C-alpha cells in the first residue's frame, strides 16, 4: 500500500463529532458555529486559561440570539443552553481525536508545530477520521506530509469573525480523495457557510488576491502617490470595498500581513507582489500592529 492511501478511506464521512485543536480566535468561533448546527464539539487547547475564555462563546451566542430570537427570548435561552451542551473542552488532544469524524486544527501558524500535532494524532485517530487545517498561508500538502492519511487530509479555511463570515475555502491537495473533499464541502454547508473549492496554492483564493492588494496600497502610499485616507476612500467609493486597504490592514493585523508576505517572498523571491515593504516592517518593529495594539496605519481608541 502506498503511503497515505488506505482502502477504508473510500467512503463519504458524515461529520458529527468534531475535535477542534486550538481554542483561540478562530478555533472558538468555529466551535461555536459547529455546536450551533448540531455537532458534538471538543475544543482542545494547551492553555487552560484559553479554554476558560472560550466559554465566552456564550457571550457571542447571546448576540446571535438577540437578533434571531427577538420575539421569543425564552426559546433563545434554551437554544444557548443546547448549543453549550454540545461543546466540551479538553487539554488532551489524543483522547479527543479518538472519537471524532473530523479533527480541525486552528493553532499557531507554524509548520513544525502543526506537523507535530497531526503526526501524533494520526496514530490514534480512527481510520475514517478526516484531518483539516485552518492555516492561512502554509501549504496543506506540507502539513499533511506528517501523516499517513494524505487522502483524508484537506484544508478548511474560515474567516474572522467566524460566526459572521459566510465563506469557507475548502482546499484539496493532489492527494485529497473526492470523498474527503465532498465531506468537507457538505460539512461547510451544514455549518450554514458557502464553500468555494480551492487548490493548494499560496493564499488559496481570498488571501492570494487580498494580501497583494493591501501590499500594493502600502507601496503606493510609500511612493507618495496618495494619502492613506484618500486610498481608503478611493477603494470604498470607486471599487465598492466595504473597508479601505489601510482600514482592513489595521483590522487584520500588520504582523499577520508581514508574516504572510515574508513566507511567500522567501518561497517565491522573484514575485514583486510578495516583496518586503519597508513601511510595513517599520510599523511592526515599533509594535504598531493595528487595532489590537491601538495603533497601526491609524490610531484606534
Ligand atoms: P490564536 O493565537 O488566537 O489561537 C491559537 C491557539 O492555539 C492558542 O489559544 C494557543 O494556546 C493554541 N495552541 C498552540 N499550540 C497548540 C497545541 N500544540 N495544541 C493545542 N493548542 C495549541 O490564533 P488564531 O488567530 O485563532 O489563528 C489560528 C490559525 O487560524 C492559524 O493557522 C491562522 O493562520 C489561521 N487563521 C487565522 C485567521 C485570523 O483572522 N486570525 C483567519 C483564518 C485562518
UniProtKB/TrEMBL annotation:
<dbReference type="GO" id="GO:0005759">
    <property type="term" value="C:mitochondrial matrix"/>
</dbReference>
<comment type="similarity">
    <text>Belongs to the 3-hydroxyacyl-CoA dehydrogenase family.</text>
</comment>
<comment type="subunit">
    <text>Homodimer. Interacts with GLUD1; this interaction inhibits the activation of glutamate dehydrogenase 1 (GLUD1).</text>
</comment>
<feature type="binding site">
    <location>
        <begin position="22"/>
        <end position="27"/>
    </location>
    <ligand>
        <name>NAD(+)</name>
    </ligand>
</feature>
<feature type="domain" description="3-hydroxyacyl-CoA dehydrogenase NAD binding">
    <location>
        <begin position="17"/>
        <end position="201"/>
    </location>
</feature>
<comment type="pathway">
    <text>Lipid metabolism; fatty acid beta-oxidation.</text>
</comment>
<dbReference type="InterPro" id="IPR022694">
    <property type="entry name" value="3-OHacyl-CoA_DH"/>
</dbReference>
<dbReference type="GO" id="GO:0006635">
    <property type="term" value="P:fatty acid beta-oxidation"/>
</dbReference>
<feature type="binding site">
    <location>
        <position position="60"/>
    </location>
    <ligand>
        <name>CoA</name>
    </ligand>
</feature>
<dbReference type="InterPro" id="IPR036291">
    <property type="entry name" value="NAD(P)-bd_dom_sf"/>
</dbReference>
<feature type="binding site">
    <location>
        <position position="114"/>
    </location>
    <ligand>
        <name>NAD(+)</name>
    </ligand>
</feature>
<dbReference type="InterPro" id="IPR013328">
    <property type="entry name" value="6PGD_dom2"/>
</dbReference>
<feature type="binding site">
    <location>
        <position position="45"/>
    </location>
    <ligand>
        <name>NAD(+)</name>
    </ligand>
</feature>
<protein>
    <recommendedName>
        <fullName>Hydroxyacyl-coenzyme A dehydrogenase, mitochondrial</fullName>
        <ecNumber>1.1.1.35</ecNumber>
    </recommendedName>
</protein>
<dbReference type="GO" id="GO:0003857">
    <property type="term" value="F:(3S)-3-hydroxyacyl-CoA dehydrogenase (NAD+) activity"/>
</dbReference>
<feature type="site" description="Important for catalytic activity">
    <location>
        <position position="157"/>
    </location>
</feature>
<feature type="domain" description="3-hydroxyacyl-CoA dehydrogenase C-terminal">
    <location>
        <begin position="203"/>
        <end position="299"/>
    </location>
</feature>
<keyword id="KW-0520">NAD</keyword>
<feature type="binding site">
    <location>
        <position position="109"/>
    </location>
    <ligand>
        <name>NAD(+)</name>
    </ligand>
</feature>
<keyword id="KW-0007">Acetylation</keyword>
<keyword id="KW-0379">Hydroxylation</keyword>
<dbReference type="InterPro" id="IPR052242">
    <property type="entry name" value="Mito_3-hydroxyacyl-CoA_DH"/>
</dbReference>
<dbReference type="InterPro" id="IPR008927">
    <property type="entry name" value="6-PGluconate_DH-like_C_sf"/>
</dbReference>
<keyword id="KW-0496">Mitochondrion</keyword>
<dbReference type="InterPro" id="IPR006108">
    <property type="entry name" value="3HC_DH_C"/>
</dbReference>
<dbReference type="GO" id="GO:0030154">
    <property type="term" value="P:cell differentiation"/>
</dbReference>
<keyword id="KW-0744">Spermatogenesis</keyword>
<keyword id="KW-0809">Transit peptide</keyword>
<keyword id="KW-0276">Fatty acid metabolism</keyword>
<keyword id="KW-0221">Differentiation</keyword>
<feature type="binding site">
    <location>
        <position position="136"/>
    </location>
    <ligand>
        <name>CoA</name>
    </ligand>
</feature>
<feature type="binding site">
    <location>
        <position position="160"/>
    </location>
    <ligand>
        <name>NAD(+)</name>
    </ligand>
</feature>
<feature type="binding site">
    <location>
        <position position="136"/>
    </location>
    <ligand>
        <name>NAD(+)</name>
    </ligand>
</feature>
<feature type="binding site">
    <location>
        <position position="67"/>
    </location>
    <ligand>
        <name>CoA</name>
    </ligand>
</feature>
<dbReference type="Pfam" id="PF02737">
    <property type="entry name" value="3HCDH_N"/>
</dbReference>
<keyword id="KW-0443">Lipid metabolism</keyword>
<dbReference type="GO" id="GO:0070403">
    <property type="term" value="F:NAD+ binding"/>
</dbReference>
<dbReference type="GO" id="GO:0007283">
    <property type="term" value="P:spermatogenesis"/>
</dbReference>
<dbReference type="Pfam" id="PF00725">
    <property type="entry name" value="3HCDH"/>
</dbReference>
<keyword id="KW-0560">Oxidoreductase</keyword>
<feature type="binding site">
    <location>
        <position position="292"/>
    </location>
    <ligand>
        <name>NAD(+)</name>
    </ligand>
</feature>
<comment type="function">
    <text>Mitochondrial fatty acid beta-oxidation enzyme that catalyzes the third step of the beta-oxidation cycle for medium and short-chain 3-hydroxy fatty acyl-CoAs (C4 to C10). Plays a role in the control of insulin secretion by inhibiting the activation of glutamate dehydrogenase 1 (GLUD1), an enzyme that has an important role in regulating amino acid-induced insulin secretion. Plays a role in the maintenance of normal spermatogenesis through the reduction of fatty acid accumulation in the testes.</text>
</comment>
